[in-house]
Design goal:
- This protein is an alpha+beta fold.
- A four-stranded antiparallel beta sheet has the order 2-3-1-4.
- The chain has two helices and four strands, in the order βαββαβ.
- About 30% of the residues lie in helices and about 30% in strands.
- Helix 1 packs across helix 2.
- The chain has a single domain, classed as Alpha-Beta Plaits, CATH 3.30.70.
């Protein structure tokens, strides 16, 4: 399993403040994961500025393309980066 961070521009016409549109786009992602028949786990997507940043776990590199095709997001400018480490508050060493 690999965890990736994807970045892409918010699609034209997608108002991330509109709950109905957010629900529709989330449904597209959930249905695309199911359509691949692969164990894909979408953790979350962050909206920042004019971009979407998604954190997703895929079984392998090929599943990334399968998901993108099923979701209809091929041909768009998408940056995919493999997450190699998570650093968070629990990573902090005790102060001495």
């Amino acid at each position: 399993m690999i965890k990736v961070l994807t970045e892409r521009k918010i699609p034209p016409g997608f108002d991330t403040d509109d709950e109905a549109q957010v629900a529709r786009h989330a449904r597209i992602a959930v249905d695309a994961m199911a359509a691949t028949g692969r164990p894909i786990h979408w953790i979350c997507t962050y909206v920042a500025g004019d971009s979407l940043f998604g954190v997703t776990v895929f079984p392998d590199e090929a599943a990334i393309g399968e998901f993108q095709r099923a979701a209809g997001i091929t041909g768009q400018d998408i940056t995919v980066r493999r997450i190699t480490r998570v650093i968070e508050a629990s990573s902090a060493a005790p102060l001495r």
